[in-house]
Amino acid sequence: MTYEYFASLYDRLMKEAPYEKWMDFFAKGISRFLPETKDVLDLACGTGEVSVRLYERGFTVTGVDVSEEMLAIAHNKAESKGFTIPFFQQDMRNLESIGPFDVVISFCDSLNYLQTEEDVYKTFQSVFDVLQPNGLFLFDVHSVGKIREFIGNTFADNDDEISYIWNSFPGEASNSVEHELTFFVYDHHTGLYERYDELHKQRTFTIEQYVQWLEETGFVVREVSGDFADQMVTEQTERIFFTAQKPK
């Protein structure tokens, strides 16, 4: 998968994303379990939208992403505001030479891009290693039901600047999906639309599996909740939130 074109479109496509709800989840998590939080790692930070919001709230923030294109936009976004946020190109499964951090976050179902059980386990171990004792790991994933809901559906949007067609198909592994996205982006210089194609693969696992891997890597699972709210997870839950803590 390449983010060469998708990175340049990401913020426009995500302009209605509930970033403030992710910030509320973060704020509630640290107030309950680690109110003295200072240093935060934004894992799979993308274009840095959450990183910037955390910096604005007074936290020391570091961003990590595997995409050079995403990181370039994140760096420019922070620099344009006069913010000092270091961004590093690293694989979340093997974080190196950074930390330690009070909190690691990974929002917007970023962990669903991990395709194997081993990938998830390695990521959890990697996060555990860069956390301070008592540090928190906050993340969200698509539920099994949400992944299955994607499959076989087509989504589309027609806009003067960006239009897209989004088809979702079953992935090769269980509880996985492949998103074929076609974008038509208006070029103001030529007056024509440019076409870009992307393939995104996502996979999820059961709550029990995530909890097991967190515990096996040393975490204590503090809370599991659904859909941005402090509520029990049900069959209708689309997004699952985890709060895990590294022991002292």
UniProtKB/TrEMBL annotation:
Annotated Gene Ontology MF terms? Answer: methyltransferase activity
Task: Name the Gene Ontology biological process terms.
Answer: methylation
Q: Which UniProt keywords apply?
A: Methyltransferase, Transferase
Q: Which domain of life is it from?
A: Bacteria
The record places domain Methyltransferase at 40-135
Q: Which InterPro entries match?
A: Methyltransf_25 (IPR041698), SAM-dependent_MTases_sf (IPR029063)
Q: What is this protein called?
A: Methyltransferase domain-containing protein
